[in-house]
Amino acid sequence: MNSTHLLLKALKGEEVERPPVWMMRQAGRYLPEYMVLRRKYDFFTRVQTPELACEITLQPIDIIGSDAAILFSDILVIPQAMGLEVQMVESKGPFLPRTTTTKSEIEALNATTADDHLQYVYDAISLTKKELNNRVPLIGFAGAPFTILCYMVEGKGSKAFDKAKQFCFSEPKLAQSLLQKITDVTIAYLKRQVQAGVDCVQVFDSWSGLLSKADFEIFAKPYLVQISDALSPLAPVILFPKGSWYALEDLSTSSASGLGVDWCLTPKQARTLTNNNITLQGNFDPNHLLKPIHEIQKEVKEMIDAFGPQKYIVNLGHGILPNIPVEHAKAFVDAVKNYSNL
Ligand code: CP3
After folding, report:
1. pLDDT tens string 284-322
2. Residue 76, ligand 1, Cβ within 6 A
3. Position 333 in a domain
4. Cβ(254) to ligand 1 under 6 A?
5. Which atom of ligand 1 is nearest to the CA of 38?
6. Is 182 a domain residue?
C-alpha cells in the first residue's frame, strides 16, 4: 500500500495537496470501451471472468484519470453466492426469480459455503492490483445488508421497495435473521477482498434512505456498524447510506473512516451533522454532468470550497449515468486535479 495515495491519506484525515476524486459506477455504459465488451459478453460473464473484470476496472483509470479504481463487480453477487439465481435483464436491471421471505427460505440460504462461489472476485482483485502496479488504490465493495434484503425480498429493482419494507415491519424477527445472515457473509467476503489486495472498502446502502430514522436504527444501522467494526482494523471503510442524512451524526463517531453523502444535503449541512469528525465523500448530482463543461468546472470548485479540501473525497452523489459524455466525466475529474489553479 502506497501511503502517498490521496484517497488513503484523505481517509486517514492526513493533509493532502488537493482532494482525491473517483466516480461511483465509473466503469460502465458511458464508456465506449465498456460497450465493446458489453456487446461481446453478458453481465455475469464480465463480472466472473477476472481478465474482463480487471480490464473494465482499469478503463476509467486510463480514460478518465480517476484517483482510485473500484473493482468491476456487483452487489448482487452475494445473493448469488448464497444460492439464489440473479439475472441482469437488458434495460430492466436485476431480476431474482426466487424471492426470500419465509423462515425456510432464509434457512435454505447458504452462509457457510457462500465464499466458495466468490473466488473469481478475489482472483480479479489480485490481477487488478498487479495491473494497476500501484498507480492508484483499489476500492473493494459490497452492498449493505438492508439494500441486499431489498433485492432478495422484492426480486427486482423498485422505486419504493414496498414489499421489502412491509416484510421488515410485519416480520421483524425474520427480517433480522436474514439481515444477520447477509451481514455474516458480507464480513467474510470483505475480509477476503482485503486479503486479496483491496486498499479500502465501500459499503453501498443504496436504499436505506427509504427508511425513517427509527426504522434505520433497527434494520440498517446495526449491520452497517458490525461490518465497519469487523473491517476497520484491516482497511479503511467508507459507508454510503444514501438518503439517510439523519444517520450521519451517529455514523461520524463509528469505526468507519469515511461517509458518502448525496446531493440532497449541502456540504455545510453534512459537515455540521458530522461535526467535522470524519472524511466525507460526494455529492455532485450525476445529472449535472450534462451541463456545459465550464459550468461543471465552476460547480466542482464551489463544491470543494464548500466541503473544504481536507477530509474530503470528491465523488458524485450516486452512480454516473449512461448518457454522460466521456469528455464531461473527464472534465469533472480534471477540475479536481486543477483545483488550486482554477
Ligand atoms: O462503481 C463501479 O464502477 C464498480 C462497479 C459497480 C457495479 N454495480 C457495476 C454495474 C458497483 C459498485 C455496483 C453496485 C451496485 N449494483 C449497487 C449499489 C450502487 C448503486 O448504484 O446504488 C446496486 C443497487 C446494484 C444493483 C444493480 N446492478 C442494478 C440496479 C443494476 C442495473 C442498473 C443499471 O445501471 O443498469 C446493475 C447492473 C450494473 N452493475 C451495471 C454496472 C456497470 C450495468 C450493467 C450493464 O448494463 O452493462
Report:
1. 999 999 999 999 999 999 999 999 999 999 999 999 999
2. yes
3. no
4. no
5. 48
6. yes
